[in-house]
Each structure stands twice: as structure tokens, then as C-alpha cells.
Design brief:
single chain; mainly alpha; five-stranded parallel sheet; about 5% strand; globular
């Protein structure tokens, strides 16, 4: 008889393959607060409402309240250098005849290619681009402190603490709006495909999301639950009481407490991926980040690949599984297509991970081996 040899990697791959998944989308049984009906369809599918965009006419009517008649600046637009914001800036200038100023908040993990893309779009459109930078060295030090603190007592609900430093993006929208005396700030968000319930779900909080809403609009009771839960994690893991503490708390306030009246562009404009890619490539020579693979969603965030490696390794799914599941619910792709796409999406992006580790300053292989040895949810 032939002897079969199984190692840990093979064993875990088999367990991953055998995870129970929704028969309509591709979310697995490890997704927080998930349940399946008699047909094997999950509650996220049965409760999902297809996004109803407010439409171009409604947006044009709203923008008319701010549109300049003498070519003065009439709006401030958040620009990350990713597809969403680059295309959004293009629409506002060319389709809606606004006179925007773009702003970018560089908190230390903005990728080089996203900077190049932002410069290309602003240059071609003749738009002023304001870049505000944090104390990069300090911010990267905080990311490292948060990461190593997280590793002392790993919990998926606390993983977003690694990127909490980027929330200054919201605050600079408010500050620059006052400095420039512009009443309108536009963020190229609001697209329902991007909403991810599992971020809070792993913290034990069941927050229903719609139109990728801003975090300050979450249920008040859930905000108190969050504050209690995060406070408890700090007590259980005193390593979080470090130099990054005040920055982390400010990130919480910027996300969940401080309100704004920003316009979320993709509450109005439907997302046509083929049109977006064609426009950005043909008119601006927009560059893909090849290290991110075929899916360029979140390509401007230097920590995304690392966080998704952890989610996929420990929970058996990543942000991409969530994104593709929303695409299925919106009728954009089939379940089989989503499975194939996610197989590609979830491949280890070693080059991107290596860049992240070098920027932050840690031994990648050592940290990855620690993560892969942690207890899994499957």
C-alpha cells in the first residue's frame, strides 16, 4: 500500500477547502454572526438590499449649490491615488464641471504607485494637489508598536489597530475645508461593494451596514459596545499601553465620534468597472500595482496585503471574499466567477508584504511564521 504524507500546510489547505460556505455568495462559516437557512444561503445574502444610486441628476442638483461661476475653487476632494478617487476626481472636473482642489494625507504607508497615479490625474486635469504628511517616522513606529502588541495577544477584532493611524485623512478634510473656505468636501466612497461587516463582527458587534456608510453614523449602542470592548482588550493586553496610545484613541474619535457632512460620491454615481479602467488607462496612463495582482482594489494602502494575509490565514477569508460576495449580491458576477477570482486575490503577495516589513522595520519571515502558527478559526 502507498503511504500518504501530510504536513501542516496540506492539512490546513484541506480544512480551508472543506469550510462550509454560503450557497449563494462565498462567505464561510467563520464569518462573524453568519447563519445559513435550509437552502444553505447566509443571512448576509437574505438581508442584503441592492444598492440604489441617487443618480447623476440628483448629484448635479446638489453640486449646483456649490459650483463656482468664476473658476474659483468650489470643492475639496480626497485623493488616495487608487481607482475610486482618481476616477471620482475625473468625473467632478469633466462631467460635473466643478473646480476642485485635491488633497492627500500621507501617513507613512501611501504607496509609490498611488502617488504617481494621483500626480498623473491632477496634472492632466490641471488641478492643484495638496499633500499633507504626518510625522512619517513616528507613524511607522506606531504601526510597529501596534503590530507587536497585537502579536502578544492576537485577536482578529483588534487587527484594525494596525492601520488606525490613517484616520487623519478625515481630519485634514475638515481642516483644509476651513483653510480654503470651501463648503463642500467630497470623498469618493459610498460604494456598497466595499462595506465589510466583519471588522466589527470580530469585536462581537453586529452592525448592519448600508451604502458603505461612515463609521460615525453607526448605532449609538454599538459605539458604546465598541468603546467597552476595545477598552477591555487594552486591559487584557497591557502592551497596547505604549507610545501609540494617544494616536490610537484619536483614530477612534476621528472614525466614530467626529461628524462631517462630506459628500460620498458613489452614493450617486454607479460603479462601471470597465468604463473606469478604460478611462483611467486611456486618458491618464494610470498604472497598476502589479504586486497587488489583478485586483487593484485597495492598491494604495501599504498595509492591506498584510492584514488580508492574517484574515485569510486565521479565518479562511479576506476582504476580497467579502468584496466578491457583494458583487454576487449585486448581480455583477456569478458564484463560480467569485471563487476563481478569490483564488487569485488571496494568493500571498510576498513582494508587497516585503515592502511593508521594510518600511515598518521588522523581519517578515519571522512574523509570517508566528502568524501561521496561531490558532485558526477553522
Amino acid at each position: 500500500s502507498q503511504l500518504k504524507v501530510f504536513n501542516n500546510s496540506t492539512y490546513e489547505k484541506n480544512k480551508l477547502k472543506n469550510l462550509k460556505k454560503c450557497s449563494k455568495c462565498i462567505l464561510p462559516e467563520t464569518y462573524p454572526f453568519i447563519s445559513f437557512n435550509e437552502k444553505g444561503i447566509c443571512n448576509y445574502c437574505t438581508n442584503y438590499e441592492v444598492q440604489k444610486f441617487k443618480g447623476s441628476d440628483e448629484l448635479d442638483k446638489y453640486l449646483e449649490n456649490f459650483r463656482s461661476k468664476n473658476n474659483n475653487v468650489d470643492c475639496l476632494v480626497g485623493l488616495s491615488g487608487g481607482r475610486d478617487s482618481c476616477y471620482g476626481l475625473h468625473l467632478l472636473k469633466t462631467k460635473y464641471k466643478m473646480n476642485p482642489v485635491a488633497y492627500t494625507y500621507d501617513w507613512g504607508l501611501t504607496t509609490d504607485i498611488s502617488r504617481v497615479n494621483a500626480a498623473k490625474v491632477c496634472g492632466k486635469l490641471g488641478i492643484e494637489h495638496i499633500i499633507r504628511s504626518a510625522d512619517i517616522e513616528k507613524k511607522r513606529k506606531y504601526v510597529k508598536l501596534n503590530l507587536f502588541s497585537w502579536l502578544k495577544k492576537p485577536h482578529l477584532g483588534m487587527l484594525p489597530i494596525i492601520q488606525v493611524g490613517d484616520k487623519g485623512f478625515y481630519d485634514y478634510g475638515r481642516k483644509l475645508s476651513k483653510e480654503l473656505d470651501t463648503k463642500l468636501v467630497v470623498h469618493c466612497t459610498g460604494y456598497q461593494l466595499e462595506q465589510r461587516e466583519f471588522f466589527l463582527g470580530f469585536a462581537g458587534i453586529n452592525q448592519k451596514l448600508k451604502n458603505n456608510q461612515r463609521m460615525y453614523s453607526y448605532n449609538l449602542l454599538n459605539k458604546f459596545k465598541m468603546l467597552y470592548w476595545y477598552s477591555l482588550q487594552f486591559i487584557l493586553n497591557p502592551a497596547y499601553f505604549n507610545l501609540a496610545l494617544l494616536d490610537n484613541f484619536d483614530g477612534f474619535l476621528a472614525s466614530f465620534v467626529r461628524k462631517d457632512d462630506f459628500l460620498h460620491l458613489y452614493n450617486y454615481e454607479p460603479w462601471n468597472e470597465k468604463e473606469i479602467i478604460k478611462t483611467l488607462n486611456d486618458e491618464y496612463g494610470w498604472q497598476n500595482d502589479v504586486s497587488y495582482g489583478k485586483n487593484q482594489w485597495r492598491m494604495g494602502d501599504g498595509q492591506t496585503a498584510f492584514n488580508n494575509f492574517i484574515y485569510y490565514t486565521l479565518a479562511g477569508f479576506s476582504e476580497y471574499d467579502n468584496f466578491r460576495s457583494n458583487q454576487i449580491r449585486e448581480g455583477m458576477i456569478s458564484r463560480n466567477e467569485a471563487l476563481k477570482l478569490c483564488e487569485e486575490d488571496n494568493k500571498v503577495k510576498y513582494e508587497t508584504l516585503k515592502n511593508f516589513s521594510e518600511v515598518i522595520g521588522f523581519n517578515l519571515d519571522n512574523i509570517l511564521s508566528k502568524i501561521t502558527s496561531l490558532d485558526k478559526l477553522y
